[in-house]
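Budget justification note: compute hours in this period were largely spent on complex prediction jobs such as the one shown. Inputs:
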Amino acid sequence: MDFLHDILLRPFMDMAGQPDFFIQVIWEGFVAGILYALIALGFVLIYKASGVFNFAQGIMVVFAGLTLVGLHEKGVPAWLALILTIGVMALLAVCIERFVMRKLVAQPDIILLMSTIGMTYFLVGLGEFVFGGEPKQMITSQLGLPTGSTAVEMGERGLIIFQHIDIAAAVIAIIMVAALAVFFNRTRIGRALRAVADDHQAALSVGISLNQIWAIVWFAAGIVALTTGIMWGARSDVSFALEIVALKALPVLILGGFTSIPGAIVGGLIIGIGEKIGEIYWGPLVGGGIESWLAYMIALIFLLFRPQGLFGERIIERI
Amino acid sequence: MFYREVGQFKTSYAADQQVFPIRQDRVGVVVILLVALVVVPWAGNDFFLSAIAIPFLVLALATIGLNVLTGYAGQLSLGTGGFMGVGAYACYKLVTLFPDAPIIVHVLLSGFAAAAVGIVFGLPSLRIKGLYLAVTTLAAQFFFEWCFIRIPWLYNYNASGAIEVPGRSMFGVMLTGPSASSTARYYTVLLVVIALTFLVKNLIRGRIGRQWMMIRDMDIAAELMGVRPLHAKLSAFAVSSYLCGVAGAMFVFFYLGAAEPSAFSVTLSFQVLFMAILGGLGSLIGSFFGAAFIWILPILLRWGMPLVGMPLPSETVTQLTSMIVGALIIVFLILEPHGLARLWQIAKEKLRVWPFPYA
Amino acid sequence: MMRKSVIVGGLLAVLAASAAVPAFAEDSVYVPLFSYRTGPYAGSGIPIANGMSDYLTMLNERDGGINGVKIVVEECETGYDTQKGVECYEQVKAKNPVVINPYSTGITLQVIPKAGVDKIPVLSMAYGLSAGAVGDTFPWVFNPPDTYWDGASAIITDIANREGGLDKLAGKKIGYIYLDAGYGKEPIPLLEDFSKKYGFTLTQYPVPGKEMQNQSSQWLNIRRDNPDYMIMWGWGAMNPTAVKEATKIRYPMDRFYGIWWSGGNDDAAAGGDAAKGYRTMNFHGVGKDYPVIQDIKKYVVDAGKSHVDPAKFADNLYNRGVYNSMLIAEGIRRAQEISGKKVITAADMRDGLENLNIDEARIKEMGMEGFAAPVKLSCSDHSGHHKVYVVEWNGSDWQKATDWFAPMTDVVRPMLEKAAEEYTAANAPWPKREEACKSN
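Corresponding output:
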């Protein structure tokens, strides 16, 4: 009976008892969710256009952040470092397309997946070789991003703390998604991208260059990775441990579907907020730390009822 | 010329159905077994046996396990590390609960624990396919990792949270623990791997293996032809997890000597997946090739680089190793997506028609 | 087909290139250092590796080694990965090392049973298995100057001192945030025992290795529970993230304690000005104002023989590496005295470490006055439970915040002995100590 009470009632009493804290939990979950969504967005962009499940997205986040900070450490001013980093990501995209993707056209999913894990090994080695293995502090203020925090008082002794950088992350993420939406729907390249996503061969036959599109998509994913790297780097710091954080985006993907941009965002928010609430209010019952798999379980159970994800296209199989 | 089966007639069904129908293969297998059983322990030093040969064999077994699931039954899994961990912890519990039973029995039994959880986490495969399934197997991976940390019963409430291997002997020879010689450990692992490989070889040739391959090639068609997907998929998960579980138990008991939960992280899953893919999906010999390539290559690079080039600091060697391994993996996937097993097959073709290029 | 034969050819070339083990000169001792300059824990691993190899290099450069015997230093990169740890161990074993420095609690646990069989001493300086301090059970394991349990008891002592006595701890709430691995779990039995004994509540916040940089849940919980004091057992990327999160929830930093391994300069600097007051334990000097550090600068860093980034020279973890190497060097020196040999073996090294006795005079001689406290080990006590002190972060550097004080040895020692018994019971049959206690 006590057990049932602990599972079914206590968490909600806790939520109602400390509303300021509950709001704080939701806010933290929301911010984490946005960052998960950003990582997932990188996956979705590439999967849509080329059918590659890009495991290297995590290391791209680290690599982009590391390049930015590493260049700044070598004496390059912040704005120039940012531009150079964007250049590096473009170069990386071209190289990946030229030396990997182009050669692996029409291979099975798993081969493409493995090639991105190969890329991960390569980029881990390269990043450490060039910039060293020490964690680096994100150059938040140099980039003109806000630091510090605002506390909102609530009631008697309630307090909600908003980090400015988190607010900035939310704003930038929204701008980014909007920009991507405009890019996809309003520009020539965007339309070509959607055509490629729909049907490779049909797109080829109307004269769209697949190679060019893939390079562009990888570049876009690189920009998303850079944004994620800056935001997450500002929350903790830029180190190779960040790579593992990208794994958190995978349940977001299954929840939202591999091919849906709105799915990535909604999925990210659901997972971000859901796992924080789960961890804070139910986690203590089993010793805590359930965050690492709770998201997967939510997604797994969800998948059993809707195998193509929240917004995914319905899978039709033919013999 | 060297590998020609012309003139080898079979006069009975038994002869026609044997595991190695070609004489050259039989000779080859005997030679390999002789090398593994006699030459390696005789010629290899402690470092070779403990740091190369033993983990190579153990990981080859795990790769075979994954190959059953991914290569033969077509279900992509990223949870190998977790299943290996289940085997290792099960073996630890068995060893401490029943200290008197022989260690080999523990190792072989511990695989069943892994098989049981493998079936449970295989259930979603009935609904979910392809990459979606791969991501859901990560759920198993992370859930197990959490269990190894959060359920103290699994590590006997040990303060350090690690499992430590007690010394156990069989027939008066120490097999596990610090005082077991590397030769004894090597032989134990070798015998288990040979026995299980032979078993899997026969499973795959049989009814169940054919069902797996039908499911892999086209599950709806297989279902229409009377293969029960529930039965076929779950049996693949069970057999695969069993092999991974045994491999995991041996990984700790005969190689690492003590293990923290982080030993069974997702990195290990990726490592084994690479072995399976670079070796060649759906090939047992490929599993050995792949394990050798992925396990031994970095060691050789770390070792060889300072010898051929300038003496590099150890961290640079590690970084370069990581880059080279990554690049080589991509090169391999591009040049031969069917893996080393396919290269082996090509080599055999060449030998058959040698010295003529075409025949 | 051409390209395929290229692959095969390349493989063969790599195979062929890997032969022969480099040989070492006769009059030298081989000291392998397991280091990690790569991976998620590199942030803590790099300064330590630099400090360790720089001190030994300095001895080679300045004094021509120890009593004329050169020290051959070789790093083996583990990446804090237990698999590579085994590989490193097997690799260095063949080259007759005099001592092993695993630098990872996980690898230490793996190496401990092997060390007794292979007869190689394991020096796990202030990390590893706390029970390893019991020399009668673990003749080959050394963890001077203090065990984790000493560290935890010292933190509780300092808290009690500030509160005005151990009896004032009753009713307080102390939070413990730790890396959820062998390392972070090590002090829990002691803390739980203390919480019963002194009547404070202990709340635990595990941080999984994967979530090192994603600690907002843990800190939300801390904010809710609002403990009076926080204790942290963090490593690698976990430390800077935790310090940052603590400043985010506006936790009073002077009530936030880290074990010595959470005391990297980069760790605290991540919190910026807000991290002022963050306290960690320490057992060696901070800063550059010691003759020994100046010598390292002169003979190694300025001579271009070090990897260290000049800006990070002599930061806290670097000095810790120096301290660790000092213990190695003094162990070798003592072993030479006892055995009468110049080139010592691993067994001699064990005797040397067991009889380690670094007194004030010797400390002065080494140019470490104020840098190190005296260290004395014995056959039964391989840790010594030496004095420690607290440093405080002032926004740019660590500052000494308390005097040297002793951990609660009288409480810790019986617990260690009990833990050693439990270890041997769990790992039965555990070999009885056969090594004679050589003292002179």
